[in-house]
């Protein structure tokens, strides 16, 4: 019979790190509380518009720490103000270049922007 190359399971009451119970990966301690607001803020969504495809991420008021200039109204997006971070998904030079040219918009400026071409 061929020999198995899998490691054996530790005996009951013994952790993977030694003789101490709970010393392994599982049961090492209580799980940290999940911050749902922070988790939802990091997810970018794709929006299609007449001016292209955009990736839009919500920046919560708690995470907004710097001042930015909104391209929609040319006024400041102040620290502590919830806003949107927007970048081109279909950038000519690739996704990394689109991400490097991301802009911070007021939520109302982004939703009410017009698509007139000059």
TrEMBL record:
Biased composition, class Basic residues, residue ranges: 1-12
Superkingdom as given in the UniProt entry: Bacteria
Chain intervals for the UniProt region annotation (Disordered): 1-33
The name this protein goes by in its record: ATP/GTP-binding protein
């Amino acid at each position: 019979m061929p020999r198995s190359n899998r490691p054996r399971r530790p005996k009951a009451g013994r952790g993977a790190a030694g003789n101490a119970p709970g010393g392994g990966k599982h049961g090492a301690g209580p799980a940290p509380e999940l911050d749902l607001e922070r988790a939802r803020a990091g997810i970018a969504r794709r929006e299609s518009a007449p001016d292209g495809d955009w990736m839009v991420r919500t920046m919560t008021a708690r995470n907004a720490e710097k001042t930015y200039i909104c391209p929609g109204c040319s006024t400041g997006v102040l620290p502590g103000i919830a806003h949107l971070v927007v970048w081109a998904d279909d950038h000519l030079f690739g996704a990394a270049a689109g991400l490097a040219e991301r802009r911070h918009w007021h939520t109302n400026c982004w939703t009410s922007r017009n698509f007139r071409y000059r």
